[in-house]
Specification:
globular; 6 strands; Rossmann fold; single chain; alpha/beta; 2 domains
């Protein structure tokens, strides 16, 4: 006979991506725009030049996205004043369909976890709930919370919080490991590009719905 006190149930969890999903845009670009404005108006010419050079090198194919991101974060991190305008700008771009989905899932007893490659220090300015993000410490190596690393950290969070993966919401193929791990449950794509849509249609094992279909 099974002792009912030994039966442990886990709560369903909905995992939400940030850029292009919860936020209808790219938060790094929003942060960069706010940073450039701040540096210009406060005559921080050396830092301004560093950012412009990093962006130019990326556009010319002479550096990686990760390297450009590292320079942007390292340059702007010492100026917490930028975070205020960033938060205001980013919150204006919250996707209402995703916000409604979060409210619906919460009402059904789901735990909500934001999982993103964005840096932790600005994520907490625009998100009040649980999250995993890229840990950023100026001068330290940065391990981006993306792909298999994001899946690993999501699984750790689920285990620590007595939850199971139920729903994944994203816009990008970078989250393919999460969708594959959740192939028997609900995967939702938000405004995917044609390339992303084609990628997920060919991915096995995985399935998805478009948020417009809900």
């Amino acid at each position: 006979m099974v002792d009912r006190r030994e039966i442990v149930t886990t709560a369903p969890c909905t995992v939400i991506d940030l850029d292009g999903t919860y936020i209808d845009g790219n938060t790094l670009k929003i942060y960069l725009s706010c940073g450039l404005r701040y540096l210009s108006t406060h005559f921080k010419l050396k830092e301004l030049a560093s950012l412009l050079l990093a962006v130019a090198k990326r556009k010319a194919g002479r550096s990686s996205h990760a390297e450009m991101k590292r320079i942007i974060l390292s340059t702007l991190y010492p100026y917490p004043e930028i975070l205020t305008s960033f938060a205001e700008s980013a919150k204006r771009k919250i996707n209402p369909k995703v916000a409604n989905l979060i409210a619906e899932k919460t009402s059904l007893g789901h735990k909500i976890l934001l999982a993103t490659a964005a840096p932790d220090y600005y994520v907490k300015k625009i998100w009040n709930g649980d999250y995993i993000a890229t840990r950023f410490e100026d001068g330290s190596a940065m391990v981006e919370c993306v792909g298999q690393e994001k899946l690993r950290r999501v699984n750790l969070w689920l285990n620590d919080n007595n939850c199971h993966l139920d729903t994944v919401v994203t816009d990008h193929s970078d989250d393919a490991p999460l969708l594959q791990a959740n192939s028997s449950a609900t995967n939702i794509l938000v405004k995917p590009s044609a390339e992303t849509l084609r990628f997920f249609r060919e991915l096995q094992p995985a399935h998805f719905l478009l948020i417009e279909e809900l």
